[in-house]
Design a protein that fits this description.
Layout lengths: L1 H48 L1 E6 L2 E6 L5 E3 L3 H6 L6 E2 L1 H4 L6 H4 L3 E2 L6 H6 L4 E4 L7 H7 L2 E3 L8 H11 L3 H22 L9 E7 L2 E5 L7 H7 L6 H8 L5 E4 L4 H4 L4 E6 L5 H8 L2 H4 L2 H4 L3 E3 L2 H4 L4 H16 L5
Parallel strand pairs: 3-4, 3-6, 4-5, 6-7, 8-11, 11-12
Antiparallel strand pairs: 1-2, 8-9, 9-10
């Protein structure tokens, strides 16, 4: 009788333990399944967010969401303004801005013209090109996803940085630069208001080897800082023939210089290939000396190595320098 009760009790206890084990096993199985499902879902989401497909001038291109190794045959200054310093860029043609010295130190030169071998060596995950390299688009695309951005995609630096902000998922950084530009321009205008009166005009002259040209606001040489940021007005003839036509540059002869430079202020930039004889032929010419700005001492020399650059950061730097020139004539 005692044996029977012991055996029965033992059996019941064993059955109870078995039930508990089965329940725990089922729970464990469900947890494992849930964990595996969650892990799979996380991996899928991670995989999906690793790339983005964007519309470009060459059609749809799938690029990294957060590229780490960009090679840029052009636009490296715009990328820097968005917080994306390339690993490679064209040094001879486009690098060298005094406003980008620190950022450019880590950028490798890809040659002039661009060397495909040097691009491959840098192992890029994204390549950015413009019209200069579009003929090699297919070759670049075999190395890494390639974005071709033609000059015609934008009309000024503001549109340019907004375009790249959209293409590269950097809208916040683009807006931050636009805000900084507006603030810098507004502060500069406030500082020169006692020197430059509303409606006063400016002419921007560029001299390269044996050629004289008048420039608009979108051809570098400080034009965007002068006309957009500081809001000096171009002469009507320049507005019509150079800016509204979207030519942005017009070669002229010395004889017609008074028509294009009869402004309150003149800014003149000599390219590095302009020889002393080219400078003297203009600055010592009676036509030049007869211009109102020359007579009033309101002519400002813009060093080519500082003002040739047209990237977002360089433009903001140029605003400050030209503002200082206008305030203190001794800085010209």
């Amino acid at each position: 009788m005692n044996y029977y009760r012991y055996t029965k009790k033992t059996i019941l206890t064993g059955v109870l333990l078995l039930c508990i084990a089965l329940v725990l096993g089922a729970c464990s199985g469900r947890t494992s399944t849930t964990s595996a499902t969650d892990s799979q879902q996380t991996n899928t989401e991670s995989s999906q967010s690793a790339t983005r497909t964007i519309d470009t001038a060459k059609g749809k291109v799938t690029i990294p969401t957060n590229p780490k190794r960009i090679v840029s045959t052009y636009y490296h200054g715009t990328l820097i303004a968005l917080g994306l310093t390339p690993v490679g860029a064209n040094k001879e043609w486009w690098m060298g801005s005094p406003f980008l010295k620190e950022q450019e130190q880590s950028i490798s030169d890809i040659g002039t013209p661009t060397s495909l071998e040097k691009v491959v060596e840098l192992n890029p995950d994204l390549i950015v090109i413009n019209d200069f390299d579009v003929e090699k688009y297919e070759e670049y695309s075999k190395i890494a996803p390639t974005i071709y951005v033609p000059y015609s995609s934008y009309h000024n630096p503001k549109e340019e940085i907004q375009l790249f902000g959209t293409l590269l998922n950097r809208e916040k950084e683009a807006k931050a630069w636009l805000d900084r530009y507006d603030q810098t321009a507004e502060q500069a205008r406030e500082q020169i208001k006692n020197r430059v009166k509303p409606g006063q005009t400016a002419a921007l002259i560029n001299v390269r080897s044996k050629k004289i040209a008048v420039l608009g606001e979108n051809y570098g040489r400080g034009g965007y800082a002068i006309y957009d940021a500081l809001q000096l007005k171009p002469l009507d003839i320049v507005q019509k023939e150079v800016i509204d036509s979207d030519a942005q540059i017009k070669d002229i002869s010395l004889e017609v210089l008074p028509e294009y430079a009869n402004a309150d202020y003149i800014f003149i930039c000599f390219n590095n290939d302009a020889e002393q004889v080219d400078k003297s032929s203009i600055l010592d010419n009676p036509l030049w000396k007869s211009l109102p700005a020359v007579k009033k001492g309101q002519v400002y020399m813009l060093p080519y190595d500082t003002y040739a650059y047209y990237d977002p950061e360089s433009i903001i730097g140029q605003i400050g320098l030209i503002k200082d020139m206008l305030i203190d004539k001794n800085k010209s």
